[in-house]
Amino acid sequence: MTYLTKPKLHHPALPTNALGLTRRDYEGAVSTLCAGCGHDSISAAIIQAFYELAIEPHRVAKLSGIGCSSKTPTYFLGAGHGFNSVHGRMPSVLTGAALANRDLIYLGVSGDGDSASIGLGQFAHVMRRGVNMVYIVENNGVYGLTKGQFSATADRGSKSKRGAANSDEPIDLVQLALVLGASFVARGFSGDKGQLVPLIKAAVAHKGAAFIDVVSPCVAFNNHPGSTKSYDYVRAHNEAVNRLDFMPLREPIVADVPAGGVESVVLHDGGLVRLRKLHAEYDPHDKVGALAYLEAHRAKGEVVTGLLYIDENPTELHDAQNTVEVPLNALGDVELVPGSAALGAFNAALA
Amino acid sequence: MKPIARVNDFVVKFANVNGSGSASANGLFARAVLKMGVPVAARNIFPSNIQGLPTWYEVRVVEAGWRGRRGGVDLMVAMNPETWDEDVIEIEPGGYLFYDSTKPLPPSKFREDITVVGMPLTEICSAQYSDARQRQLFKNIIYLGALARLLQIDPEVIEALLAKQYEGKQPLQESNRKAFRMGFDYAAANFKPIGLKVERRDKVGDRIFVDGNNAGALGAVYGGATACAWYPITPSSSLAEAFAKHCQRYRVDPATGRHRYAIVQAEDELASIGMVIGAAWNGARAFTATSGPGVSLMQEFIGLAYFAEIPAVIFDVQRGSPSTGMPTKTQQADLLISAYASHGDTKHVLLFPEDPKECFEMGAQAFDFADRLQTPVFVMMDLDIGMQDWLCDPFTWDDAHRLDRGKVMTADALAAGKDFGRYLDVEGDGIPYRTYPGTHAKRGAYFTRGTSKDRYARYTEDGNAYVDNMQRLLRKFETAKKLLPAPVVQRAAQHTRAGAIWFGSTGAAMAESLTALAAEGIHLDQMRIRAFPFADAVAEFIAEHDHVFVIEQNRDAQMRMLLVNECGIDPGKLIPILHYDGNPVTERFVTREIAEKAHLFNVTPMRKIAR
Question: Residue B133: CB partners within 8 Å, gap ≥ 6?
Fold first, then answer.
């Protein structure tokens, strides 16, 4: 597969965002995934979210592991640095990167094999540490690049394309993230951009560990009637707890509040998430309630989507580390090297 | 048997039970000798256990300043009934045994060729203290008092040390002083001084007594490290902990109290090295501290860092291996797994500090090398250097030195239109330019990956582009040879056709051993290797000699393998001298082994012919 670039020229009348950038400025190379892959829809949602947020693409660091999902950072935000690391270990690389420069936005992209199987340990610990990031799992329940083996998120009883049934319990990364301390937990569906784009925008604005599990059907190996992660299955069983609009601080807040249950969630940076609640009883601040809700609907074979939990005042790894405001990678000799006089004192104490 | 009579040149070994509070008293003994102006070489020989198992502390009082173990024991302080038999056997003929005589022992438990000094320590403590904990702790200080008297150490020296140790804690200071005096006075009243004696000298000077983990951690501070990710593993944990301590002192912004560093205790070694790579990719200087099992776990990531060309510093404090091996014993057995870490064709930079001073120096330099070469750098320490206090020259630092961040393309250079290819060899040294993420809005971004790529970091499976990249990595390795610390060569007093090569902590025994061998007429030119890849001088040194002894602390002669492999040396020229029982190699071992093999390989006659 070769590296494809898109033509640089575009129509002068393309709409621009607050930075004067067009949507094209947020794109990357042409995808090499299968036509119709849910992952490409997620890439498109990421592009849309960052375009609407008017974040400079080069201020985003994109990190991934190994697998189909982990290839996708090539396909969006081409002006940002990307790091395709090793299988299941993106969280540690992202953690290190986040430590080095707190001024960038960290976007981790992973898959169900990458995060729920080989990388389950690192997934758990990156959530525990509250790394300031957006962590997206493109969840198709299957290993695509190695041609169709079950992943750990495949539902028990779901069938592979060859007809074999999965006998193992699935891992629900959303429930895990909740328990492990992620301060923003959501689930989306690659086929529902209207829900996914605001979720990503809200996750970016969240100053803590933000996790989005995106059900993303695999057209090649897992989009058939026996799969619980196919387009048809998810569309039929999607249980959306809320729809949301996200408004960053700098945008004027529109007053057209729709009738019905609407709740505004103020984010740390002053931005707002407005939840158009489809289920009046659902409270995204109640972690215990969220877990019970998820479990109850899982038993019914339903996929709950929406913003499931948010802590509006999260603490993140840099708070725990009490690091200086200046990014660590910008500190120079003067701040870092104690010099010979200090060494003299060190020697004297040990003489 | 005539009792041994020696001044400032003998070995005292303390046999204790782990967790009994003996470490503090024994450390005081070593520092007291130092305060008398007499150098010591001290080693804690301890089990992988927190409480209850045997532990020893060996103090070699050595006016000549040798830093290795000699071998043998002249005075055994036998405080552990469990190891009594083996401890008594270890005493040199004519040596001394100091023990707790509260409980009578049958004559069969002793030897006739040693001098026995029995002191009813338990009885004295029971009479003096009612609290069980006090009885245990002060017993150690009481025997320290008795030893001071037996070896004629100035009691005021130890009292001053106690005063310093318990500064501001008056009651503790006083009770310890009292216990010390109790032991001292008892010995004065009941024993004659023995044949071993500490006499005041001025041979310590401004040297410092420090362990390599502490020193390496300080090196990391001076090397500009801002991110440390680690997972606890003996014998490296104290390096990360010392880094935290040094950072508290040197890296807290005085205005805000906030940290100019970050330390993460990771969930495992894979995460540790992953964080290091992530931080270094993003332009911070980062390191991990680990030991052999950790290096095993890090293999995949190390290959990524090699191939994607990301700096990383790994302090490998080697221990007894393979597998869990001997966690509290020393070896130099991670050479191969470090030099060629990860699958595929990889080679890595290794540094070999010989003592804590070099742990400090190389601990700082490693970050310059890693940034300059954009590759992982291993600081190959071992338990002997890492966890033992060594007497070293004071550390020095050149304030004119600036951190070398290597080839980093700036926003200005990018804006000026300078061609940026992440894997483009612009200057012919094999080292490309890199950019930090977020540098420029339009230029300089690239995709970092473990897959093959072309000079502009574009994914490719083209064979020519792959080979081109792999060849450049070899050129970079050639550049490294000239950049890294050069080997240290010392010529024998007489012309010789034989040489000796060693590295790392083995040097402690080598200096003394080579002096002893020279006295026996075996003269060897000497080379201490300080880095891998080897400088050209290494192959040249071997070529100049008919036989070269390679002394190392592992079973399979790993350094010798590296030499044969990397320098194309005829294996027959390199005579392995191997010590790998987990204890630091002794002078006596090296001298005996080389002397025997020198005759076997005709090294001595050849020298005579040459002369």
Answer: none
Asked if B69 and B47 touch (Cβ cutoff 8 Å), the reply is no
Count the residues in chain B.
611
Helix, strand, or coil here: A135? strand
Interface contact A121-B402, CB threshold 8 A: no
Contact predicate A187/A214, CB 8 Å: yes
Mutate to test the interface with B, among A76, A326, A328 (most CBs of B within 10 A): A328
Residue A272's contacts (CB-CB under 8 Å, 6 or more residues apart) are A246, A247, A253, A264, A265, A266
- What digits encode the pLDDT tens for the residues A280-297? 778 999 999 999 999 998
What is the helix (H) or strand (E) element at residue B68, kind and residue range?
Answer: none
A1 pLDDT above the threshold of 80: no
How many angstroms separate the CA of residue A219 from the nearest CA in chain B? 24
Position B604 pLDDT exceeds 60: no
Rounded to the nearest 10 degrees, the angle between the axes of helix B170-190 and helix B155-165 is: 160
CB atoms A85 and B450 under 8 Å: yes
Length of chain A: 351
Please work out, in degrees rounded to the nearest 5, the angle formed at the alpha carbon of residue B348 by the alpha carbons of B309 and B532: 135
pTM of the entire predicted model: 0.95
Contact between B229 and A80 using a beta-carbon 8 Å cutoff: no
Whether the CB-CB separation of B573 and B545 falls below 8 Å is answered with yes
Over the stretch B82-93, which tens digit does the pLDDT of each residue have? Answer: 999 999 999 999
Kindly report, residue by residue over B440-498, the tens digit of the pLDDT: 999 999 999 999 999 999 999 999 999 999 999 999 999 999 999 999 999 999 999 99
DSSP B206: T
The predicted-structure confidence for B175-230, as pLDDT tens digits, reads as follows 999 999 999 999 999 999 999 999 999 999 999 999 999 999 999 999 999 999 99
Q: Which residue of B has its CA nearest to A326?
A: B260
Q: What are phi and psi of B227, to 5 degrees?
A: -130, 130
Report the C-alpha gap between B5 and A302 in whole angstroms.
88
Closest partner residue to A346 (CB to CB) among B227, B395, B450 is B395
DSSP code for A200: H
Quick one: average pLDDT of A171-189? 96
* CB contact (8 A) between residue A98 and residue B258: no
Beta bridge partners of A138: A111, A214
Domains of chain A: 23-350 (3.40.50.970)
| Helix (H), strand (E) at residue B514 | helix B507-519
Residue A230, pLDDT score: 87
- End-to-end alpha-carbon separation of chain B, Å? 42
All domains in chain B, ordered by first residue = 6-197 (3.40.920.10), 210-392 (3.40.50.970), 411-483 (no CATH), 488-610 (3.40.50.920)
A18 token code pair? 């607050």
* A346 chain-B contacts, CB cut-off 8 A: 218, 395
Q: Where are the beta strands (DSSP E) in A75-158?
A: 82-84, 105-111, 133-139, 142-143, 149-150
Quote the CA–CA distance of B204 and B393 in Å, as a whole number. 9
Whether B544 contacts B499, CB under 8 Å: yes
Q: What is the pLDDT of residue A158?
A: 85
Q: Do A324 and B258 touch (CB under 8 A)?
A: yes
Q: Which residue has the tokens 């005759």?
A: B599
Q: Is B378 helix (H, G, I), strand (E, B) or coil?
A: strand
